[in-house]
Amino acid sequence: RVPDANIAELRRAGLLRVWQPKRFGGHELGIHDHLDVISELAKACPSTAWVAGVVHAHTWISAHLSEKAQAELYGADPDSITCAVVAPTRSTAKKVDGGYRLTGFWPFGSGCQHSQWMFLGGQVKDDAGAVLDEGEFLIPTREITINDDWHVAGLKGTGSCSVTVKDLFVPEHRFLSMRFLMTGTGEGLKKNDAWLYRSAAVPVLDIALTGPALGIARAALETFLAHVKGGRVLAYTGHVQSEWPVSQVDLADAATRIDMGELLLRRCGPPLTDRKRAE
Fold first, then answer.
1. Residue 277 — very low, low, confident or very high, per pLDDT cuts 50/70/90?
2. pTM to 2 decimal places
């Protein structure tokens, strides 16, 4: 899991509020700002960057919630951290008076140990098993069981444990229909009307996962350059690595691929200053 000290530093620097609505203490910045923050964090700690990136994504989702749910989420603490497992996976939800009854198992809850709230995806079904709706249930993390099962080699610091709930009541105002999210018709957009929240969900939520890879690649390139400086000689060949054409070509190829990746990501989302074109 990400150390508590790292999360405290992110909060202190305001780096978890990049996509949070201004009405609730956020910065409401653009996609480029998100990429800048997350890729820079990843150069030092990819797991911290991953968790911060998904928190950004979930603040974006939160902007589409009902006004009552947003007030619950941010009212007492604008620094509340929301994590999520957006996919419905192994879950069932049934409509009941005033809300829903939710039961399920969700893997890959990145950063869940640090969260105060979680979005869990689920399908709402009738008694015959037909799907009536599907979307995200906003639940206080204290009502969720976090399973200690994240024992992996890659991104092991993200604390992406599975979570479970059993026959949990979720009030109706804390359910966000994915159909509303995908079509940009969520209740929250009545007041959170910035272009960021009116952007299409799939590109935004996909881009939110890419910043760590960009930062990791940049750090690898910088580490390699530092490694070969100072006249390092390759074993058995006598070549000075920084002067060897093979190393120079490989370095140029890697740098070009990283630049192309970054340019493509930035092309996917206009900067905040380009509001008129985006709208």
1. very low
2. 0.92
Calculate the CA 267 to chain-centre distance: 19
What's the number of CA atoms in the CB half-sphere (13 Å) around residue 62? 35
Between the alpha carbon of residue 93 and those of residues 61, 105, 238, 265, the distances in Å are 20, 12, 67, 36
Strands 82-85 and 131-140, by their bridges, are unpaired
Contact (CB, 8 A) for 121 and 88: yes
Q: How far apart are CA 93 and CA 46, in angstroms?
A: 35
Average pLDDT for the chain? 92
Instruction: Tell me the C-alpha distance between 118 and 62, whole Å.
Output: 10
What does the alpha-carbon distance between residue 240 and residue 226 come to, in Å, rounded to a whole number?
Answer: 14
Structure tokens at 245: 């054409």
Q: Can you give the length of the chain in residues?
A: 279
Q: Are 236 and 263 in contact (CB under 8 A)?
A: no
* CA distances (Å), origin 138, targets 45, 119, 212: 28, 5, 26
Q: Do the strands 90-96 and 161-171 form a parallel or antiparallel pair, or are they unpaired?
A: unpaired
**In this structure, what token pair is assigned to residue 158?**
């993200």
Sign (positive/negative) of CA torsion 45, 47, 51, 53?
positive
- 96 - beta bridge partners? 99
pLDDT at 274 over 50: no
Given 3-state DSSP classes, what are the helix, strand and coil percentages for the chain, each rounded to the nearest 5? Answer: 50, 20, 30
